[in-house]
Amino acid sequence: xxxxxxxxxxxxxxxxxxxxxxxxxxxxxxxxxxxxxxxxxxxxxxxxxxxxxxxxxxxxxxxxxxxxxxxxxxxxxxxxxxxxxxxxxxxxxxxxxxxxxxxxxxxxxxxxxxxxxxxxxxxxxxxxxxxxxxxxx
Length: 137
Known about the structure:
137 residues, alpha+beta, Aspartate Aminotransferase, domain 1, 3 helices, 28% helix
């Protein structure tokens, strides 16, 4: 099998490396899998957290929180996935928390990432639309 070079920004690599050991493992695994499934996505540190964008629209990202590493999908509320928890009604985000790399279900992660390509709400223009979200895909 040919090993591909993944498109992960140096800032995300530095963010991951700054995390404690177990959190680094989780962040590193997430970055690699996200970048493999979304190879054309732009990725960068946005609001101090790693985020992947398709056509300028935020799709997926993660952050360190009290409950662990939070993996968030901006349009995840419409994925119809029981493991992704919806935290409000105004936006369409949904997330899951990890405290060990062994908790990351690669099959589910890849399914969610594939859904993130097909199910998108327009967060890129939310300010222009005065907080109103519109469905892109």
